[in-house]
Amino acid sequence: MLKPYETKLKSIKEEIQKIGLEVVESLEICQQALVEKKIENLKDVEITEKKLLLKSNEIDNIIVTTLALYSPEAKDLRQLVSFLKITNELVRTGSNTKDFAKMFKKSYSDDLNTSMILEYTIPLLKSALLSLQTATSIIDEIDPKHIEEKYHRVIVEESKTDDLYLMIEKNILKLITKNLDLSKEYFDLLSSLRRLEKIADRAVSIANLLQFAQVGGDIVQS
């Protein structure tokens, strides 16, 4: 039978994973909509910052209560402090996911160079999704080697999102110079794609926090 503190810690992890899964599933809906070229299906992304914030606050209250009741030792204290920060990062990823779906759907039209847009957007979304999936999976890891491997995998995917965003930005700016009438639509699309890049950034932050929780060291500011 688990001790009361271990039960609390297990419950906190499970609730954090639920938020992470909700964001991941929303990104998967986005990915499927783009791959199938059914952009209208982006409306099915129902995740909202308000709902995530409510869940995040509930988890934070449990964490604070746990800290007050059990006075955890060094490693456990690191975990709980990290979890407090991670809930905020997940709220931000959820908000960016919703913004991407809403902005991309609104800006996307057949008047634009849709083939080029999707050529870069799909792998950009895929890398953002994989970075978040990998980062949140670290919460169950206890082997420092596996944690390190997953952390570096997140870094690689985040780097891919940076490169892909720069490429699509360059191509879209070229298109704008050729068709100024569509400049607003293209700029709005770029703004939506920037949200995907931010999701990957948040994934790195989550991975770093979980690495800190398990093996210590320094928290790298994102």
TrEMBL record:
Organism classification: Bacteria, Pseudomonadati, Campylobacterota, Epsilonproteobacteria, Campylobacterales
GO BP annotations listed: intracellular phosphate ion homeostasis; negative regulation of phosphate metabolic process
Family of this protein: Belongs to the PhoU family.
Entry-linked Pfam families: PhoU
UniProt-listed InterPro entries: PhoU, PhoU-like_sf, PhoU_dom
Domain of life assignment: Bacteria
Protein name: Phosphate transport system regulatory protein
Coiled-coil segments on the chain, per record: none
Segments forming domain PhoU: 17-102, 148-209
Gene name tied to this protein: phoU
